[in-house]
Design goal:
The chain is an alpha+beta fold and about 140 residues long. It contains two helices and ten strands; from the N terminus they run ββββββββββαα. The protein has a five-stranded mixed sheet, with no helix packed on it.
Length: about 140
């Protein structure tokens, strides 16, 4: 159970419970900008945008993951992340992400339709995040 310095963090995706442990701090990107969450945060719900999520435990150790959209429910002692996709660095194939970047850039250059442009922009953002995170895992 979380003490006053920690909160219970649960990250779920459609395919699995990605992470479930107590955390000291959570950092992620939302539609409102970058956010950092500690225990006793004001209850709120925010929309996730593709980005790198950082989880810090009470020992100061950080874990990083890529999340690609979803929602975050923040309560005083519990945070639940409902992610469309959540990936650890070792689960990401850099070459595949690079190929996805090239495809997305081609679709953006084609200027097909507004809907296709938005999908291509989202795909490009996911590909770049995956590359950034997998690059960190290789170091």
């Amino acid at each position: 159970m979380a003490d006053n310095r920690n909160f219970h963090l649960k990250i779920i995706s459609p395919t699995r419970i990605f992470y479930e442990q107590d955390a000291y701090m959570l950092e992620f990107c939302s539609t409102e900008g970058e956010m950092g969450i500690y225990a006793q945060h004001v209850p709120t719900t925010v929309v996730l945008v593709p980005g790198i999520m950082r989880i810090t435990d009470d020992q100061g150790e950080k874990k990083i993951a890529a999340v690609h959209g979803g929602f975050v429910e923040i309560l005083k002692n519990r945070v639940t992340v409902m992610a469309e996709i959540a990936e650890w660095p070792e689960e990401i194939d850099f070459n595949r992400a690079h190929e996805a970047q090239i495809r997305a850039e081609r679709r953006l250059a084609a200027k097909d339709s507004t809907i296709n442009q938005a999908r291509a922009e989202f795909a490009l953002r996911k590909a770049l995040i995956r590359q950034e995170l997998s690059g960190r895992a290789k170091k």
